[in-house]
Amino acid sequence: MDPNAKVALVTGAGRRIGRALALALGDTGCRVAVHYNHSEQDANETASLIKAMGNEAITVKADLEDPTQVEDLAANVYEQLGSIEIMVNNASVFDKVGLKEVSAEE
User: Fold this and answer.
1) What is the mean pLDDT of residues 15-35?
2) Where are the beta strands (DSSP E) in 1-106?
3) HSE, side-chain direction, 13 A CA sphere, residue 57
4) Residue 87 DSSP SS3
């Protein structure tokens, strides 16, 4: 692990695109903070895959709709990895609804 490696925070990094981005950053040598809100097991798996590459990774839980949790998230990453140099805002609300079931208002 390179202590001078850039620190990256990827929100929503447990699954799908967020996981792919976190893994890509880990593969380039970044120290990665893997954020999740509900997908703890997936986030742990993502972090394990990054660690298997020989790079540092942590998981951090936060509800991004809560400003206090966002502040705690940033402080937690700073304490464990250092200053965040790369930020990927990937987290989103994801409803498993077919396109035909979504109304124009939604």
Assistant:
1) 97
2) 7-10, 31-36, 57-61, 86-88
3) 28
4) strand
Task: List the one residue out of 22, 2, 24, 6 whose CA is nearest residue 14.
Answer: 22
**Do you know the residue count of the chain?**
106
Find, among 22, 39, 25, the residue nearest to 90 by Cα: 22
CB 88 within 8 A of CB 17: no
For tokens 């997908």, what's the residue? Answer: 39
CATH homologous superfamily, domain 7-101: NAD(P)-binding Rossmann-like Domain (3.40.50.720)
Domain ranges of the chain: 7-101
Backbone angles phi, psi at 35, to 5 degrees: -85, 145
**What pLDDT digit, counting tens, does each position of 43-61 carry?**
999 999 999 999 999 999 9
